[in-house]
Amino acid sequence: MLQFTKVGQDYPEKRAAGDRAADFAEISTSFVVETAEEQSSRCSQCGVPYCSTHCPLHNHIPDWLRLTAEGRLREAYELSNATSTMPEICGRICPQDRLCEGNCVIEFSGHGAVTIGSVEKFITDTAWEKGWVEPLAPGPDRGQSIGVIGAGPAGLTVAELLRVQGYEVHVYDRHDRAGGLLTYGIPGFKLEKPVVMRRVDRLAQGGIVFHQSFEVGRDATLDELRARHDAIVIATGVYKPRAIKAPGVGADGVIEALDYLTASNRKGFGDAVPAWDDGSLNALGKRVVVVGGGDTAMDCVRTAIRQGAASVRCLYRRDKANMPGSQREVKNAEEEGVEFVWLSAPEAFHDTGGTVSGVQVSRMRLGAPDPSGRRTPEVDPGMGERIDADLVIKALGFDAEDLPRLFGSPDLAVTRWGTLRVDHKTMMTSLDGVFAAGDIVRGASLVVWAVRDGRDLAERMHAYLKAKAATKLLEAA
What we know:
5-stranded parallel β-sheet, 19 helices, Fumarate Reductase Iron-sulfur Protein, Chain B, domain 2, FAD/NAD(P)-binding domain, about 35% helix, 3 domains, alpha/beta
């Protein structure tokens, strides 16, 4: 260990921008064993590891880096898997530059962070290849069942951990495949779909029952599900797109980011997607403008490049230093041909015959900092322009849907943001035996936080269900 003064920082090689922009395969190769060991040996083995502290899962990062450096890959995988239900997924899509790697001590010293995410991906992919990933083994049957609403990372984490405890687990999801945004929201060039599907298959083989294309409120009310199960988990995520209030926003060709990404991912699965085939959700040959600066916007601009757009521009109201998305993603997008128009916001949308033909853009300037510390964008008078566009994708983030109405459960309490109100000690909602985790509680956030919430909730639900079973035994006696 402590080789950071002798061994330079190295990431897996990225494919050439022109090559990777022609397909939806992941853009980077994986480490070979020797490189993974060498890069892991750069770790300084801090007494207080900031990388672990700033990881929502508090992964034992220095420990599995040391095991990797020593060639003990199976032990490294087992330690990584001890705190995360999907380490190879987090290794691919976590914004390590803002979390573990961004807080690496040797990064502060100017030597460049240990490439933690790439090592995490390598050791878990190796575990799958070598057959070290063991089947999900349920514990002794407890005679109790839970229903999980939502098959995203939070819901799948709860489902796995409670199945291991011996509970009967049923997962209800509106889509025809499990995985939530992992499956339909994140493009393959960041997360290839077989990586997600093998996790889902492992859960199904472990006895978790998936009810797909199932909408709560349509196929069963929340109360009906409560009657079927001893406890319920709501882990739906947040899917309501934030709106743009500007003239012309209703023109054809002004579309939602999630509709666009879902259509692209479905096409990758080989599904029939009429809106993709007729061009409504397809960027081929079009001048594309994406509005937003987060990770979803980066997914959209890079997808449009791969679909063969004539040009792709991204409008963001702040500057590059103040954008919420990963700087690595911005760099990847720029390499692939995306043009960023910083300090700009849509003022209106032009149309020709009801179809969008351009975006009237206001130029912005940065004013005083807001409560988050970022400087507030203000319109710079007289500095607007028109940008021609055939397809405009709105990627401004997501809010919670009206679940009390959708689920037919008016007593389900929500916050002023529409997220579910929970007791943060028990993670229970206003309804007894109904718990919630992930983005539907905290708002749109990271996959790693959803996994953390699912892990925490499994512990609390286990305690609740044991107490419930004990009460029944007392009553029966």
